[in-house]
Amino acid sequence: MSELGVNKVVLVGRAGGNAELKFTAGGKPVASFSLAVNEWFKSRDGEKNDRVEWFRCVCFNKLAEIAGQYVGTWEN
Do the beta carbons of residue 28 and residue 72 sit within 8 Å? Predict the structure, then answer.
């Protein structure tokens, strides 16, 4: 018998834009946004390299409302 589990991932990066907040037909909030995560490493010859990985994030319910309000790019 297989057991169900939960995977947890923590991503630290920068928002690629403002979160887009929408609502389902039943009125539940859904927010989506992109997140850029940088990785820094040295090559075999000692040269510093960086790489950016983009993640598409989706939040539901209360967390979606919070993301819709706070996730986004800074404007002066």
Answer: no
The lowest-confidence range among 6-15, 26-35, 47-56, 61-70 is 6-15
Query: CA 36, CA 56: separation in Å to the nearest integer?
Result: 9
Report residue 2's pLDDT band, with 50, 70 and 90 as the boundaries. Answer: low
The gap between the terminal CA atoms of the chain, to the nearest Å, is: 56
3-state secondary structure (DSSP) of residue 64: helix
Distance CA 59, CA 62 (A): 8
User: According to the model, what pLDDT value does residue 6 have?
Assistant: 83
Per the document, the length of the chain is: 76
Q: Which residue has the tokens 């991932």?
A: 9
